[in-house]
Amino acid sequence: MAVGFIVSGLLVGFIVGMTGVGGGSLMTPILLFFGINPATAVGTDLLYAAITKSGGVWVHHRNRNIDWKITGWLALGSVPAALVTVMFLHRSQADQAVINGLIKHMLGIALLLTAVAILAKPLIQRVTFSGEMTLKADSNTRRIITVIVGLVLGVIVTLSSIGAGALGTIALFLLYPLIPTSRLVGTEIAHAVPLTLVAGLGHAGLGNLDWGILGFLLIGSLPGIYLGSQLSGRLPDRLLRPLLALMLALVGSKLVF
Prior knowledge:
Helix content: over 70%
Number of strands: 0
Oligomer: single chain
Number of helices: 10
């Protein structure tokens, strides 16, 4: 079983390094496939994401690709939402079957939304940066919307471990169309670390974390991310993006329906 987790970490890390798609949309379904309890799968993946994305924050900060003000507004909504969601899970622990069902359903919805976001991202980029669509809102309204986006992401990510990357980045593209793509991506990665850390530690406090599995996943993912990064841009995105979206949509549909 340990070898399976290491290989899974290697595979997910490779795909993340090559495509930039968040590991949660891949890792949590894999853990469910191994028969891991849904709550444990989500909790383990959340802390896995917090650790792996921390390195990305360092790189993006060094390259000045993070807008810390936007990160702060997102976290203002997402971190309290994550804490409230963990408290809800704690109070509902009496019926674990209901909680597992809720998590699986939210996981399926998050996978479907992520699949749509992956397919829609190129179109949104073209429309946004061509000037055909702009957000007509003053600075205060934009901040409020950013906090609300963070709040929604906090609930979705805490329940499913999915959404901080793909869904968050799409939202930032719409809210801040004039900011360079690399800076938006770096900003969302910086926001994902405190969100997944708080949500992951919350799940750990509920007993929804397997430290052994987490260690095996990290052993595989670190070289996987490096190898994937070396191939990034060498394989046709028009082929990888639809295949990845299709895979996530199939898994999400199975969990929801």
